[in-house]
Design goal:
GO terms for molecular function: malate dehydrogenase (decarboxylating) (NADP+) activity; metal ion binding; NAD binding. This is Malic enzyme. Belongs to the malic enzymes family. 45% of the residues lie in helices and 11% in strands. It is an alpha/beta fold. Strand 14 and strand 15 form a beta hairpin. Helix 8 crosses helix 13 and helix 24 crosses helix 27. Bound molecules: oxaloacetate ion and magnesium ion. The site of oxaloacetate ion has 9 residues, from helix 17. The site of magnesium ion (MG) has 4 residues, from helix 17.
Length: 609
Amino acid sequence: MYKVQFEGQEMVIRFPQDLVDNDALSQFLGHINLRSILRKSAFSNSADCLDKMRRLENIPHGAAILRDPYLNKGTAFTKEERELLGLNGLLPPRVHTMEAQVMRILENLRKIENDLDKYVYLNSLSDRNKTLYYRVLMENIEELMPVVYTPTVGQACQEYAHIFRRSRGIYISAEDKGRVADVLRNWPQKDVRLIVVTDGERILGLGDLGADGMGIPVGKLALYSACAGIHPSLSLPVTIDVGTENKELLEDPLYFGLTQNRLRGDAYDELLEEFVVAVQQVFPRCLIQFEDFSNANAFRLLDKYRDEVLCFNDDIQGTAAVALACIYSALRYTGGSMADQKFLFLGAGEAGMGAANLIVSALVDEGVSEEKARQCCWFVDSKGLVVKSRNNLNAHKREFAHDHAPASSLLEAVESVRPTAIIGVSGQGKMFTKEILERMADYNEKPIVFPLSNPTTKAECTAEDACQWTDGRAVFASGSPFKPFTYAGEKRFPAQGNNVYIFPGVGMGCMACWSRKVTDEMFLAAARVLSGLVTPEEQKQGMLLPPLTRIREVSLEIASAVAEVAYDQGLATHPRPSSLETHIASLMYIPTYMDYVGSQDCDKGEPVK
Ligand SMILES: O=C([O-])CC(=O)C(=O)O
Ligand SMILES: [Mg+2]
């Protein structure tokens, strides 16, 4: 505490602890330009001045604040803030509103022709000014989601080391064994509540991209903030680098990761265990989202940790929930009940197994026997139709192996099973051929066709192909976006059945109520809520999901439903608020600039003409 005399008034000013001597004090006074504060008549009231001093004392000044992406406002720093923070001369003189800044970003962005360059441009904005980045992203979510997320994020990961500007997130490499907690402590934000982690082995449908998979956690977390309002400083992207089996990367002189083959077996499990334990120590109550691990590791890690810590696997559980939501919505157009359906999955990995198991849970919840529910789900893997007579099926597949003649291809399987829905989760593009879709149209008045693999190059078919080859009758959803198109004079809006409709809300719901676990019942609730949010007007347009422009509202509804489940299941440890929705809405991050001075009369910038 220091007492300062000014214009006959005594003021008490609290300075940072380390300013103990007079030199430091006068340096500090100079630093924050106190004299110029005091000269302003608006500050002659000592209480007012004190309030402003308190606001300012922990804020970096001068060029330092321009370099802090959480605090920087760029040209939107007001005249008064520029004065108080020592910014005069460091910025062009005219103060701009945020709207003008958004206009400038969009003008620049829309001049860029290539999506990867747009991705780089937006990343650099996020490095400079988080508030503006999120404002731009949220206000233009339909236009920009394909840039910060699938499909562009896939290309970004494939070229990660080549487009690199600045490191993001935390890398934990096999060499960090024994000191993982220390590595996590190096992260500058100390209150981390949400981690998305990958080991890069199965990045979208693109395979092993090693440490360059970092783009995925970064992209998912950007969407957490944009879609569910998780404050960006609460989240941390993590890549666990255990090596790669991607020969091209190993030979690339610019590759970022360890140039070794992947750790397997005990060494891998020990590193992952150390990571999960370290997260509990360093960031208590932090939610861990596993993303884009190989099939075998994804299932094992989920089984191992789902009852121990607050975690889920997005590719198994998140994708399952959005697929189920799309199925519920599709049934509005096809008629018939869930129990009457035959779902044929191409691909028996994380997404396929996750979706089939959630469909079974949904049916059992509706009173259908588990055995009958399993009969609704069929799989084709690399060896053909999954049937009882096949040897060496893993435990997951065995649960869905039916008494049926073998079929060696998807076409054969479609012909013999005659599914009502084909769901592509194979990570292989163009697998739903013209012939297959024509068969689906022969067997079904309205065939359900969901090519869910990502990015767009891995989609099992395009939206227009699905439409053409079924005489416009396919009920369609894909993992990566397809643009609206016109068929027979009618506008079609292909649904993006991507887990982005699910994970932000589920994560927010669990975080808001301090849930101890993430459960399948939460994903079931999320799927039902999501499908239920499609308005009658949207249904008239054939939509399966609400448009992305409503994603904040969607995520809030899902978060509320998920928290409700957490309270019902006795997992929530936060005292129950009187309204979950109001409570969660109040937690949602809105990207607006901080007012560093708190002055009513401060210049808010000039409006854009
Ligand atoms: O990231 C996406 O677009 C969906 C997803 O989790 C995946 O394909 O692995
Ligand atoms: Mg994924």
